[in-house]
Amino acid sequence: MYELLKQEGRAKRGILHTVHGDIQTPVFMNVGTVAAIKGAVSTEDLEQIKCQVELSNTYHLHVRTGDKLIREVGGLHKFMSWNRPILTDSGGFQVFSLAGLRRIKEEGVYFHSHIDGAKIFMGPEESMQIQSNLGSTIAMAFDECAPALADRSYVEASVARTTRWLERCKTKMQQLNAEEGTVNCHQMLFGINQGAIYSDIRIDHAKRIAELDLDGYAVGGLAVGETHEEMYHILDETVPYLPLHKPTYLMGVGTPANILEGVERGVDFFDCVYPTRNGRHGHVYTNQGKINLFNQKYEKDMRPIEEGCGCPTCRRYSRAYVRHLLKAKEMLGMRLCVLHNLYFYNTMMEEIRDAIDEGRFHSYKEEKLYGMGQINREKEKQNG
After folding, report:
1. What range(s) does the tRNA-guanine(15) transglycosylase-like domain occupy (predicted)?
2. Annotated binding-site residue? 357
3. What residues act catalytically?
4. Phi and psi (nearest 5°) for 136?
5. How many C-beta neighbours within 10 Å does residue 14 have?
6. Residue ranges per domain, the chain?
7. What pLDDT, in 10s, does the model give residues 38-76?
8. Architecture label for domain 2-272
9. Is residue 268 marked as binding?
10. Angstrom distance (rounded) from CA 3 to CA 260
11. Would you call 266 exposed, middle or buried from its count of C-beta atoms within 10 A (0-12, 13-18, 19+)?
12. pTM of the predicted model over 0.70
């Protein structure tokens, strides 16, 4: 159950009550594709860096290790020793982006595994069964993530099929939750709004899926080729038609600036690989903007990545030392950068929640963007 605590404009402050604990929103979900955060980050680390929700990937866990094995050992929470909420995506995005040759039919998608080429079929019922085997807190509906710039006729047909698939997901989820021996009989289902960059298709789809009274709603198919301005426009147009008293999830987004803009437009949940991917390449986030620790100017810099940061890295290590580790290709360098970046994101979400609680989100957003250099850059772009 989602409890809406406060609003400032369209920004929402809430709590999603789940069987694995409460999720304070807005929240950034830390992406652990194969039940692990890339960069040698442990479950214990996640607890220390304020992670509320871990996100795992249905497709990847299905083709490697296997969801049936994970069910046999007690589900994903027990497998990875994590007792807080987990969201699993449906596998749909990976099927359409990774799997290469594929055939989309009404029943589902036929494709080949990107690992060994094995033939695989996945449809709504199969995705729900895999996620039920994993026992995640929140399961995502199986959908087609159509290219953002696809032509209108393709998008209309795709969205209509995604709606039919969502209805099948809901039916299958209810059946699985009622079965004896289900890993998590309280598994929640989030539906996904699609429609590329066509506002009218997005709005019609939002109205239709809102009628299904799901546990939450995601906006998918963004940050896949359109501009930031187009993404913000779609959120402006679409989010008002999703249920206010259910969580709204913007999938695969994004930068700190994207998150601040999304919160302002009523989004509760975010996820993105940026903090981990950038960290593994020595790019770290600070309140003064992103810095590249490979730059020579940090060679003798004995300050922490950010003064006053409470992350495990900044409490003990210097920029110079972390740079040395990265240059020496020591795994510890990547790990320390990823820990810092995830802590930065999780702390920013904490600050956002406090700001909405205190009715000062708009000023917080402006100060944050200014500090990171985002507002100046936008003005420079506008001035040509």
Report:
1. 10-369
2. no
3. 89, 271
4. -65, 160
5. 24
6. 2-272, 279-382
7. 999 999 999 999 999 999 999 889 988 999 999 999 999
8. Alpha-Beta Barrel (3.20)
9. no
10. 21
11. buried
12. yes
